[in-house]
Amino acid sequence: MAIRVVCPADDFHVRQPDGAFADQAAAFARLGWGVSTLAFEGDRVFRPALMPGETVLYRGWMLDEVEYRAFVGAVEAGARVLTLPDTDSVCFVNRSELHRSVNSTSGTRFSPARSARVERFCKPFNRSPHEAYLAAHHLPRWVPLLADVTPETVCFTDLDDLPGALAALGWDGFSVKDFVKSLKTGAGSRITRPDQIGELLARMAHFRGQVEGGVCVRRVEDLGQASEVRFFVRAGRAFSADGSDVPDMVRDVAGRIAPPFFSVDIARRADGAQRVVEVGDGQVSDLVGWTPAQFMTVWADAEGWADGAG
């Protein structure tokens, strides 16, 4: 089966991939894949056009839910998305359960002591590409499944009294992000006082354009930044950048998370414990610590997987 990667188009040369993804596109081409570009902020035309029956992987900038649905719709006009889930049995956080649980001023708290609550979040996986995307892209979708191996987290969709809600937690520090990512510019995403949350969210909206989904606050742990390592998981198999053995924790995560392609970042806490720092959809995860050539090892046998997916 023919496989094609789609990358964002260069702003001025729409038949060429954006410079941030040009090396990856070239590596996929050397692997024998077709390569197309898509001008997301232009005419939204695939160049070259997708061929009927092709299987398509997106590698590019983060897309919100509406943008990703539109991308999938454009692909499925004649082709199909490679990351369609191939299982109905793995747990994920159902959208309706998420809404009812998170939509309160006190937030939804995910911690090891509440890990038994994960059972009520386990539903048959909705086999659609956009649900698979959100299952790794939105933090409240994956964090309840990893509550025992990731920092304690509380998620909010009602932002009216966040200072009061944060004060009630009694934490010494807060790492703040929306449902997708934290703020990397300026003073960053950490605060030590609840009354600092308003200013941080204003900066997030300014630099990122929106606060996507809601707000998640994570209890600050003493994690060594230098120890943080990114792994990719495809079809339940975990890969490391240098080909070395994958930690048992990463293999464990690969068995808990349903999306067919995602990234997972692991760091070591001061007491030596390994912790999951982040999970993200693999299509929009940066190659942190990876070269394009190393990334191709994830896809060496992808044709067989594509033939069996869906």
Automatic annotation (TrEMBL):
What organism is recorded for this protein? Deinococcus xianganensis
Start and end residues of each ATP-grasp domain: 176-296
Q: What protein name does the entry list? A: ATP-grasp domain-containing protein
Source organism superkingdom = Bacteria
